[in-house]
Amino acid sequence: MNMNMKFLQDLLSRVSSRARDHDVGGRGRTSKSGSSPLFQLSAACHALMNSGGEASRILVAQRALEHYAQLDAQDRVAFFTLLAEEYAADSEAVHLAYAAYRDEESNANLERLFTACEPARQNLLRRLNLCPGGTFELVKMRADLLGLLKEHPELAPLDADFAHLFSSWFNRGFLVLESIDWNTPAAVLEKVIQYEAVHEIHDWEDLRRRLGPQDRRCYAFFHPATGDEPLIFVEVALCRGIPDNIQSILASTEELDANDADTAVFYSISNCQRGLKGVSFGNFLIKQVVQELKRELPNLREFVTLSPVPGFAAWLSSARSAGQVKLSPHAESALEEGAWQENEESRKTLAGELMPLAAHYFLEAKHRSGQPLDPVARFHLGNGASLHRMNWPGDTSTKGLKQAHGLMVNYRYQIDQIEQNHEAYSRESSIICSSEIRRMAAKQKPRSQQKADA
Amino acid sequence: MNMNMKFLQDLLSRVSSRARDHDVGGRGRTSKSGSSPLFQLSAACHALMNSGGEASRILVAQRALEHYAQLDAQDRVAFFTLLAEEYAADSEAVHLAYAAYRDEESNANLERLFTACEPARQNLLRRLNLCPGGTFELVKMRADLLGLLKEHPELAPLDADFAHLFSSWFNRGFLVLESIDWNTPAAVLEKVIQYEAVHEIHDWEDLRRRLGPQDRRCYAFFHPATGDEPLIFVEVALCRGIPDNIQSILASTEELDANDADTAVFYSISNCQRGLKGVSFGNFLIKQVVQELKRELPNLREFVTLSPVPGFAAWLSSARSAGQVKLSPHAESALEEGAWQENEESRKTLAGELMPLAAHYFLEAKHRSGQPLDPVARFHLGNGASLHRMNWPGDTSTKGLKQAHGLMVNYRYQIDQIEQNHEAYSRESSIICSSEIRRMAAKQKPRSQQKADA
Amino acid sequence: MNMNMKFLQDLLSRVSSRARDHDVGGRGRTSKSGSSPLFQLSAACHALMNSGGEASRILVAQRALEHYAQLDAQDRVAFFTLLAEEYAADSEAVHLAYAAYRDEESNANLERLFTACEPARQNLLRRLNLCPGGTFELVKMRADLLGLLKEHPELAPLDADFAHLFSSWFNRGFLVLESIDWNTPAAVLEKVIQYEAVHEIHDWEDLRRRLGPQDRRCYAFFHPATGDEPLIFVEVALCRGIPDNIQSILASTEELDANDADTAVFYSISNCQRGLKGVSFGNFLIKQVVQELKRELPNLREFVTLSPVPGFAAWLSSARSAGQVKLSPHAESALEEGAWQENEESRKTLAGELMPLAAHYFLEAKHRSGQPLDPVARFHLGNGASLHRMNWPGDTSTKGLKQAHGLMVNYRYQIDQIEQNHEAYSRESSIICSSEIRRMAAKQKPRSQQKADA
Amino acid sequence: MNMNMKFLQDLLSRVSSRARDHDVGGRGRTSKSGSSPLFQLSAACHALMNSGGEASRILVAQRALEHYAQLDAQDRVAFFTLLAEEYAADSEAVHLAYAAYRDEESNANLERLFTACEPARQNLLRRLNLCPGGTFELVKMRADLLGLLKEHPELAPLDADFAHLFSSWFNRGFLVLESIDWNTPAAVLEKVIQYEAVHEIHDWEDLRRRLGPQDRRCYAFFHPATGDEPLIFVEVALCRGIPDNIQSILASTEELDANDADTAVFYSISNCQRGLKGVSFGNFLIKQVVQELKRELPNLREFVTLSPVPGFAAWLSSARSAGQVKLSPHAESALEEGAWQENEESRKTLAGELMPLAAHYFLEAKHRSGQPLDPVARFHLGNGASLHRMNWPGDTSTKGLKQAHGLMVNYRYQIDQIEQNHEAYSRESSIICSSEIRRMAAKQKPRSQQKADA
């Protein structure tokens, strides 16, 4: 790898001045050898690219990752900038390789051009990955990077390298599905508590309620290189009939005989690793869990979600502001005062006005991609599920009220229709939904058309 | 991916004519739907690249690999050619991306060029890898490809793509070291019998002699995605002192208490998957096994190999033909008649003449890379081992006599010198060897110099 | 434990004279300390009963079992005699305890009498069992003892102690059912080869044919204290329909999709440990395997055996000798010459005469216990199976011809009738069999009644 | 089994009147069939003894144990009384067997007498143990029984039967040692929280502090038949030097590198199953854990406990009441006011007076068995440990202050002296202790002798 030698000198001056600053600040992050972690990290990266046999690289990679772990926020930016700028491809080599390809468009010449274009940092990341535990450290490193992209858009190509490698490393063929229950090691369970992103798990007793009973299941994907770190998990409730309410699932004290259940409800799906953004697991997970459950419990006939509608309240608010949608005064005040939960009449009014609006939201409100505005809808419809039923009020927690005025929906996974649903959705952005919801949306349309006509 | 549409038409005509041929030949490989596996495979590949959600791709990938498994040799060439030619990068996109990069050498533009240069087949291979068991099928597919490269050098870029992906997928961080012994599942053991490449394992009893006793060990690397398929394994004998003879190890009937051993001997290393050519496991394996053994058996002080010298006899023969080396008439006839094994005097004569020649072979005979001519020497010296001792006769099997006139050597792994040995070897091609061997080689030198002087 | 002190003196003199003999014989079995294993074993047993904490007993027990392993046949008799005579209960204590019980028949007094009656050797055996691996050594010790009982009927009470302990230790609640297949460790598989008692397994390839295909199963009971030593195993073939022939199962090369099978056939059941004689596993095993298979393969509707009839030929021979049964001259000569296998006519004749006799044998020939004469029939009928079908010729192996003139039968396990079958069999010795077999037996009856009437 | 028929009638009348009472009380514990659990249980026991094959017994046993689980306290007494009285041995059979034995004291006759004396309930318990999970149910049943023995001493023989069976079933050879850590299934960990008997575990975070750090260990014995129910466990801290204080262990936030530790401290040993009273695990456990730790961490040189002194405060109180021991007024008031913890002078005074008394307590205060009065001392000294050091104040928790005025001691396990210590202790009740403690005790002696002389 033809590494620009100037960079090391630049780097040395930069990191040594930084090291000096640190001494002044007395932050003491300098290592025993007197040099800062940033300096040591960059030296280790240099060594990793330029010397050594494969076995010695394991040690260097290990040290590099230890140094990285000591960086503060500022140093991380410096390190990522170093990767982006100095571990890019060698531009001269690119020009030469292109010239050859231009002269003869052979496969071999293209391969050389491809190699010349590959940023050196991809190789660096591969070598950092040599050491035991390296994969997870790199996943965390990318999580750090993602947090910086907004302020440092110039680091985007570095992120693309991570994404490129991770999509290879976390290929679906390498994932292992594991059931998580009360017999799972505590070291894994505490991560489930930590990573749950939809309906918070408050403590170990709460966790036990979700994992212990025979009418509850939890499945996660793991990757051999990241050991007992779950990548994504889904929590499942086994029920009779399709539930319309999350509190009844979370607070349930009665236990159904698993063999008596006819419906499996996916009520929480959590991605665990921010650093794996863009590597898609969720659709594989749900479909594999459906297979697993069908095999174990042949009585199951329905596979549905009980899902939040995270974008509804925000959409409604902005649609109202824009005058595209209008609520009755009664409904307005009920929503504002939040008092509808105890007031039968308010509930009726709201149900009558919110349901058509919600149906409209699902079918008509669009993301810039042309897909539905609601991110959870995009996920499940993109997986080939259909929008089955709206449940109101389905989630009366603070979070549920805030993001969706208490609305929840069921998406339905019908094994034999997933493919065609998916195709219809991805080709024509067709939203497959129940006739009930379509009817509901129709109620709303005229009004919004009236609006448009006006 | 901007796929050239012409290819499909070409392909269709090609495969349909082929299908017709098949019908004539009545080979019956056409599937129920009347079309040949090659046609179906190419259609599946097309589908994999152009449609569907990720979950549906699993099924398509599965079908594609099933079709591939049915191809005959001729069809494989056709399929690989298809991949090489039609799943290359889009040349127009390359030119455009390059133009942008030339105008502005930004990271982002380079990333686009890199993406444009990436052959579409890399993505195709990644998608074929989606299905369960796909990884192993792809490894076997590359083994097929490697067998065709000599006759079809135009397929080399395709092989480079495989190599590129496999070095990511079979990253050392994903490998799992497992001990193999008589408690290992029979399904794995039969593969050890099958893959042993150095000293053949004749049957289950032979296998048991190598795995069962407490002074024998075997370790293998596995990869989660290829399940119980070993990638590489090493067989180890625990001894007192460094052994000079392979037959005494293979035929041993006495069992040493493992705690009494002071020496671990690596006497057989076998790569199991031809399709993983170029993905290096061996050096990691030996070093990890050394760690493992040291931890379990603190009394071990020496870690050596008992290795074949596969290139010695051929080198000697050609050196003699070229007049660079001369044996005494007695030695010549002893070698020719092969009678030296039972003849004490012949043995003495041969020992006196062969040892200096062998030392010379190791130190002076060079590969075009500047490294030693002997491939096993390149492997161990490249790993940081030193050439420790020559043993003659060390292997009196037919194979051992044929390839090295019975010569074996010990390479020695000294943990604290591996790094510097490796550096010296890789930087300066220095061959680290015992003074005894160096002295032996010196005996030869004058003679060959005489030769040169003459 | 109030140990009679005289015994030690006796023992000492006996074993020392024996030791002397050994020296004369120069058999060299005396240990380093100059004393024989028998002496050391008896000393260790004494120590085990009279001293030490529980932890020290582990060591003593270990040594004792090592000494036992060195005994020759003669010494074993001496040792067992020692156990029988000197580790009996203390007769004086028995008399005293009885006197107390006679005076007051309290629970407490009975408990004391019970304790006084318990032979000291039960406690000794329990203490020998303290050391790791002790259980299996004791099982083998009893196997030795069983081999001596015929010649040494006086050792029967000692055998009763073993039986008493083993029925506690090998309680069904402690057994673990494991599936054995081609993924089972070789160390276990070689025991399956060794222990197979019904249809010999010739080599590893033969074994693979019985374990590898998806339409073959094997299950074994293990006990935690005897580790990977199988106690009993059953081999199962999954078929369509009930097979009538063992050779077609053993030599099968076609593999049925397990999900297409409707019948599970238990074609071989082998007890592995002679030393566990009288501890019944077989009935638990079959019933648990039936449950297991039903769960995994819901399409299975029939559970039958394909069983040998080990007592038929012997019974027929003696019945003929006794004049109770008469074959036609043609049948007689066909049987004698053994030529019927290739001769269609002989086969017909034999079928016509042997089947009624066989049915008669099952229904009328009685063991002294009042149960059927055939031991395999006793086992399966006692388990609640019914006698379903006779198959002739069902086993044309040398063994099959010799013991049953080629006859095999199917016993049928119908889960919902097992209980009542068992009750009927055990209360009234009712043999539950198919009407076909009953009809067959009826054909025979008149003849034998004629005989009786004559 | 010759069952007294009268008992059934008695039982019927008893349980039917009880059933009536229940109806009156409206407690509704009668089952669907209208009969009480007690009645059904006794019927099931009768069935278990008198009918059925072994397989059917599994079902009956299961039902019996389910009925037992429904019994209330009063019913349990009735059931245990039934077992004690009606499932005793048949007295007539005992007399007959004895008569035969008296006439001829043969082994066979003794065996028959032994069999006649064995209470039928032993067989009943063995058959109850047939069903899956039966063993643990029986352990709990005995725990119930133990709680009743004080009020119902007549049930002691029944308890002896349980003890007899359990010592066979829970033979050391059947126990499995497992390490318990933060990777252990939560279902086991919650039992550790529940069963911890020495230093309470407050919640999961507290548990993690005891299991998670690398300088903490926990080991438990399990039995295959009771699955994941720990029988006994010990918690270990790895330290540098011998600790003198439990709070510093329990509250530790610093983590020692396990390889740097030179001392393993057993600071809590908890028996988990009351029903296994009298079945000794503790000494095996400690010794096996010592082996395990030595193997894993060769740097460990000392194995000690940090143990409570549960009997010290009570002994001191009664010795003071009896005038055998006298504290200074200052010490008296310091102890009474409990204010010594913050008062340096009081601490000094108390140390000076309490330590000799404590040493005296260990060496002179005796249990009726002649062993030390302190139960923890009996346990460890009986195991072959020595009394190494007194630590004051070692436990300032409420419990520690209450039972021992804050005193803790270290018992020391020296592998090569365990045997002789044990022998000396068990033969001569010699208490092996450090010279320091002996010297301390000597200080006290004169005073107490003075007392005696006075």
Automatic annotation (TrEMBL), chains A, B, C, D:
GO terms for molecular function: malonyl-CoA decarboxylase activity. It holds the Pfam family MCD. InterPro entries: Malonyl_CoA_deC, Malonyl_CoA_deC_C, Malonyl_CoA_deC_C_sf, MCD_N, MCD_N_sf. Residues 87-170 form the Malonyl-CoA decarboxylase N-terminal domain. GO terms for biological process: fatty acid biosynthetic process. Residues 173-414 form the Malonyl-CoA decarboxylase C-terminal domain. This is MCD, Malonyl-CoA decarboxylase MCD.
